[in-house]
Structure formats: C-alpha cells, structure tokens
Amino acid sequence: GPPTPVPPTPPPTPVPTSSNFDYQYHYMGCYFNPQNTVMKLKVQHEGAMTAEWCYDYCIIKRDYTYFGVEATNWCLCASSNEYMYYGPSEYCNQPCDGDSREICGGAFAMSVYRK
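-> structure tokens emitted (115 positions)
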C-alpha cells in the first residue's frame, strides 16, 4: 500500500533571550512616532538598551501598560494605546544597542509591546 505519512517534526521550543522568566510581554507592532511625542515617558539608555531593559523600566518599576523601544537606545512608556496615534511604520529595522539580535525600533519608529 501507500507509505504511511510521517508527521512533520515540531519546531524547537524557542529559548528565552533572557534568563529572567519574569519577562512576559507581547509585541504589538511597529508604529510611527514623527514628533517623538507619542509616549508619555522616555529615557535613553546608551550602549545597553534591550526590550527587557525597557520592560523592567516601564512595566515593573513604574507600572505602565505599554512600552516601546526606538532608534536603538530609547525606551518609551505609556498607560494607554496612544502609540497607535500616527499609525503603523515599516521602519523598525535598527538593532538594539544592548543586543544586536533584537530590533529596537528605528528612525521615528517604535517597536511597541504591552505587558
């Protein structure tokens, strides 16, 4: 008879990029920030920015709901979905200062996450 179909091999379980399993957040997308005024609080962390650092800064330490990373080393925090104000952007293409495997937004573009 016909050969028995072999089920596909499941993909490997993704390995967390951080050893701290408290980091639980969801990627919302890339959004345009033309005047750099969209998110309420912003801070620069040169040489060491990652999504995890920004999550810790905005969500854990300050209890915001959303955070975004922009232009390799900026972290932005917000309580509402104001990040959507100018709509999506295609320009989240710059690696994070602190981890080149991560994208930290781009020019006038935020990689946005929610807790």
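Residues 51-60 form the longest helix (10 residues).
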